[in-house]
Write a structure and sequence with these properties.
The complex is a heterodimer. Helix content of chain A is 36%, strand content 22%. By secondary structure, chain A is of the alpha/beta class. Chain A has a single domain, classed as 3-Layer(aba) Sandwich (Rossmann fold). Helix content of chain B is 22%, strand content 34%. In chain B, a hairpin with a 4-residue loop joins strand 3 and strand 4. Classes of the chains: A alpha/beta, B alpha+beta. Strand 1 of chain A pairs antiparallel with strand 6 of chain B. The complex binds guanosine-5'-diphosphate, magnesium ion and zinc ion.
Chain lengths: 222, 120
């Protein structure tokens, strides 16, 4: 009986990566800035996105959102109240979004009519980091209630991010949030990353975030 | 637990490659997994047996080779190995490691196959 070694060198997530590359090309062709928002459940992704959508729409920008959820459509309803087109991606228990799910839920939308497309991932700090969704910018969020060492505990996710957002800064003080430690830890994991400090409640830090979005969108505009 | 999806993708990847080798038995599946790939070997091993059952990979062993993060340090003008993913800095000069060259791999490197008697 003979045994042989066959070299494969094939990416395990190749299928997802190829679909994501296709989406990335579509987003680029349409001049839409796509962002993938990842964090733990409860960090404030939906609240942050609600506020972002309202501010963008108020200033005449065109933005839409896809929101991943394990079972419910609560987040989609909250986001739709902003007036932006919103679609729910129900993952039926899968702990992350995949490029195929995103592709399917874009059907019928004319991407060229959009400036921004936000994708709220399923609340999870591990699994979404392996799945490219074709986004230009991956945003990792961390709330002041979660502890400054979260980036150290989940380095794979924070290292894969292009921007970081510290949420709920309105309650930083009662939470005894150590801002310096949080900034330092994020920087140890992803040196040089842009970090925003925001509150969806008071609107603090939103102007800087919106300005960043506009800059990034200008780079992909057709 | 996305290890379940990962193992399913491994099964798909290997099964597709086996088309070129009809009738063989898979003895071993070898992976290269970067430490930043967000995949835990124990969890992979844990579901490997169950997921491969009834597939051409049934009964095979999963061998995982872990790859450290490698970065290019501009200051030192060379590639350096990053010992800890809790601190992405050049071990020689301490400067921040932003230009990563390795550490996110998630691939099937090779398979070991065996001709079965049925083929003879
Ligand atoms: N104080 C305060 N609470 C917030 C803020 N953003 C979100 N929350 C609260 O945090 C909880 C989770 O928010 P949500 O947006 O659903 O988080 P998600 O699971 O990441 O989408 C909700 O009770 C929100 O009201 C904020 O900026 N300040
Ligand atoms: Mg949400
Ligand atoms: Zn160096």
């Amino acid at each position: 009986m003979t045994t042989r070694i066959v070299e494969l060198r094939r990416g395990i997530l190749k299928k997802n990566d190829e679909l994501a590359a296709g989406l990335r090309q579509r987003f680029a062709d349409a001049g839409v800035l796509a962002l993938n928002l990842v964090s733990s459940p409860g960090t404030g992704k939906t609240a942050f996105l609600e506020r972002t959508l309202r501010e963008l729409l108020a200033s005449g920008s065109r933005a839409a959102a896809l929101v991943g959820d394990l079972e419910t459509d609560n987040d989609a309803q909250r986001l739709a109240a902003s007036g932006a087109p919103v679609r729910q991606i129900n993952t039926h228990g899968i702990c992350h979004l995949e490029a195929e799910m995103v592709g399917k839920h874009l059907n019928g939308w004319n991407l060229a009519d959009l400036d921004y497309l936000f994708i709220e991932n399923v609340g999870n700090l591990v699994c979404p980091s392996s799945y490219d969704l074709g986004e230009k910018i991956r945003v990792a969020l961390l709330s002041v209630t979660e502890g400054e060492d979260k980036p150290l505990k989940y380095p794979t996710l924070f290292n894969s991010a292009d921007a970081a957002v510290i949420t709920k800064i309105d309650i930083a003080e009662p939470c005894a949030f150590n801002r310096a430690a949080a900034l330092r830890n994020i920087n140890e994991i992803r040196p040089g990353i842009r970090i925003f400090e925001t509150s969806a409640k008071t609107g603090a830090g939103m102007a800087e975030w919106i300005a960043y979005l506009a800059e990034e969108r200008a780079r992909v505009a057709p | 637990m996305h290890e379940l999806s990962i193992v399913s993708s491994i099964v798909d990847t290997v099964t597709e490659s086996l088309v070129a080798y009809p009738g063989v038995r898979v003895r071993e599946v070898r992976l290269r997994v970067g430490v930043l790939a967000a995949v835990v070997e124990d969890s992979l091993q844990f579901c490997y047996g169950v997921v491969t059952e009834g597939t051409p990979l049934a009964g095979s062993a999963l061998v995982v080779r872990t790859l450290p993060v490698m970065a290019h340090c501009a200051l030192c003008a060379q590639d350096v190995e990053i010992a800890s993913i809790q601190s992405l800095r050049c071990p020689r000069c301490g400067s921040p490691a932003t230009d990563l060259r390795q550490g996110r791999e998630l691939e099937v490197e090779a398979i070991e196959i065996e001709d079965t008697e049925a083929m003879a």
